[in-house]
Amino acid sequence: MAFELPPLPYPKNALEPHTSAQTLDFHHGKHHQAYVTNLNNLVKGTPQENQSLEELIKASYKDESKTGIFNNAAQVWNHTFFWNCMKPNGGGQPSGDVAQAIEKVGGLHKFKDDFKAAAVGQFGSGWAWLVADKGQVKITKTANAVNPLAEGQTALLTCDVWEHAYYLDYQNRRPDFLQAFLDHLINWDFVAQNLSKAR
Ligand code: MN3
Fold first, then answer.
1. Prediction pTM value
2. Of 3.55.40.20, 2.60.120.10, 3.20.20.140, 1.20.1250.20, which CATH number belongs to 96-198?
C-alpha cells in the first residue's frame, strides 16, 4: 500500500503572518510530497513495501544499506508531526499535565529559551524537539531526518529548522522563525495528546 501525503490540518494561509501560505505551499506541497514519492519508489516491490512508517523508521535507522529509506520515511513522519505541532492562534500557556512537564524543564520562559537555543544551535538542517525519554521530559535536536522515534524516545513537539521551513518568510533569521513558532504557533493540545501516549 503506497504512502500518501496527509492534508494539512488547517488552510494554507491559516498560520499567517508567522508562516506564509507560500511557505506551506512549497513545504507541504513540494518538500513533504517529495519525501512521500521518494519513499514509495524506494520500497515498491521490496519486502519493506507493506511495513508501516514507524516500522520502516526503526528498522532502517543506522543501516547503511537503507539510508534512503530511513531519510525519506523519517521525513514523511517528521513533517506530518510538525504540521500538527502548529495551529492558528497557537502558543500561549500550556495547561494540565503539559504545564507540569514544562515546569520540570524550568518553566515556560526557560523552555522557550532552551528550545530556541537547540533549534538555532543545530548546525545545518535538522529538527528541535521536546521529547519524553524514560520518564524524563527534555529538549533535544537532531540532524537531517533523525527523529526521537529512531532513538527510542516519544516525540512531544518539534520545529523544522531546515532552511526550506523559514527561508521565504525569514531568510537567514532562524531565531525570528523560532520566536514566532514558540509565541504564536505551538499547538499545546497536540503536545498533551503525545504526552498522554508517553505515559
Ligand atoms: Mn521540512
1. 0.97
2. 3.55.40.20
